[in-house]
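To the wet lab folks,

You asked to see what we're planning to order before we commit. Fair enough. Below is the target structure as tokens, and below that is the sequence we designed to fit it. If anything looks off to you, flag it before the synthesis order goes out.
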């Protein structure tokens, strides 16, 4: 199967706690290839736009506040069936329910401070990737 791409974000809780390197190593050991990465601090407007799909839900304000609380690390990852493979690799949203060996089981603090974001579909992966990166930002080959 040909490799395709997905977006992930190492969230402020994990990035601020110095867990980014361990998370990247974990993902690379699982066969993912990093093709684009950056460190940034989202503005309230950026976080609000990125998570607009959740606007109106009770957790939206807290999510925007959390995602603007410190630096994060968006990345585009490449692997066969990347979206599904990444969602399997990171585990359930609540680390208490995440499978052993998943990113969230290993590195997340709580359901709200869950270390990492992953796109939930190929369409959202493409849209979310364009939010952070131009095609020219991605490594080829």
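Sequence we intend to order:
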């Amino acid at each position: 199967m040909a490799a395709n791409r997905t977006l992930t974000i190492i969230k402020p809780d994990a990035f601020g706690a110095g867990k980014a390197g361990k998370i990247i190593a974990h993902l690379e050991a699982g066969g993912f290839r990093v093709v684009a990465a950056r460190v940034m601090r989202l503005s309230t407007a950026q976080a609000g736009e990125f998570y607009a799909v959740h606007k109106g839900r009770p957790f939206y304000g807290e999510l925007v506040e959390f995602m603007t609380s410190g630096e994060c690390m968006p990345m585009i990852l490449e692997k066969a069936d990347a979206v599904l493979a990444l969602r399997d690799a990171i585990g359930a949203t609540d680390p208490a329910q995440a499978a052993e060996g998943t990113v969230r089981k290993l590195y997340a603090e709580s359901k709200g401070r869950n270390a990492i974001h992953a796109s939930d579909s190929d369409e959202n992966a493409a849209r979310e990737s364009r939010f952070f990166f131009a095609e020219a930002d991605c490594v080829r080959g």
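Structural context that might help your review: The mean pLDDT is 95. The two ends are 16 Å apart (CA to CA).

Thanks,
Computational group
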